[in-house]
Amino acid sequence: MTIAIVDCGGANTASVRFALQRQGCDGTVTHDAGLIRAASLVIVPGVGAIDDTMQRLQRHRLDEVIPTLTQPVLGICLGMQILGTRSDEGESDCLGIVDNVSRRLHAAQGRPVPHTGWNRAQVSTPDPLFQGIGNDNWFYYVHSYALAPGPDTIATTMYGQRFSAALRRRNFYGVQFHPERSGRGGAKLIGNFLQLAGRDITRVAS
Predict the structure, then answer these.
(1) Which end of the chain is more exposed for a tag (fewer CB within 10 A), N or C?
(2) Which residues contact 17 (CB under 8 A, 6 or more apart)?
(3) Contact, 121 vs 165, CB < 8 A?
(4) Whose CA is closest to 54, among 85, 16, 100, 17?
């Protein structure tokens, strides 16, 4: 099994690799389209600004490559947001895999933005990604923008407003939280994603 970690320039690339290593495997950080196409699994991490991330992908034409992938793909945090069409954060078009726009969270007293900390994810649609993970599991979030619940949402979180904690569109998954920093629940989710290698999931949840 080969795992490609798309080089988006995000600060969480090393922690994603460490999380994979704790599962007994490793990933290759790359912007090489050939390696990404050939990988068993692809992870799109992201910590940073939407325009910078999309420009980096465009520089290597990965904005054209990623939507054509047929193996399981997991976008993390900003890597999930770029699966949508656009974001309020910047001017760049995103990948357009999911018909949804990333909106800024609403700040309030006792509820600052960025949303930083631990929250539960309420699973709304059973999916192999959440196999063995109940609604009592806590996940770690660091973000100011999020995708609203929609047809592709498989889990939600409440932070003043309900937003998509996880989504799935065919073989594309996204999680707004950081599973690589979410303890046992995050490790279980990463393990579940690894189990998708070699499975034809492109025709499911179309």
Answers:
(1) C
(2) 5, 26, 27, 29
(3) yes
(4) 85
pLDDT digits (tens, 9 = 90+) for 64-102: 999 999 999 999 999 999 999 999 999 999 999 999 999
Could you list the beta-strand ranges (E) of the chain.
3-6, 28-30, 41-44, 73-76, 86-87, 101-104, 115-120, 122-123, 138-143, 145-147, 153-158, 162-169, 172-175
Asked if residue 136 has pLDDT above 60, the reply is: yes
List the one residue out of 134, 139, 176, 180 whose CA is nearest residue 23. 180
Indicate if 143 belongs to the active site.
no
Q: Is 178 a catalytic residue?
A: yes
pTM: predicted TM-score of the whole model, two decimal places: 0.94
Phi, psi for 134 (deg, rounded to 5): -90, 175
- Measure the CA–CA gap between 42 and 72, rounded to whole angstroms: 6
Distances (CA, A) of 177 to 8, 9, 32, 164: 17, 18, 26, 10
Is the model's pLDDT at 38 over the cut of 60?
yes
Reported as a single tens digit per residue, the pLDDT across 45-57 is 977 899 999 999 9
168-204: per-residue pLDDT in tens? 999 999 999 999 999 999 999 999 999 999 766 654 4
- Cβ atoms of 95 and 63 closer than 8 Å: yes
- Domains, the chain, in order of start with CATH, read 3-194 (3.40.50.880)
Does 180 qualify as catalytic in the annotation?
Answer: yes
Structure tokens at 21: 């290593």
Q: Cβ distance 169 to 97 under 8 Å?
A: yes
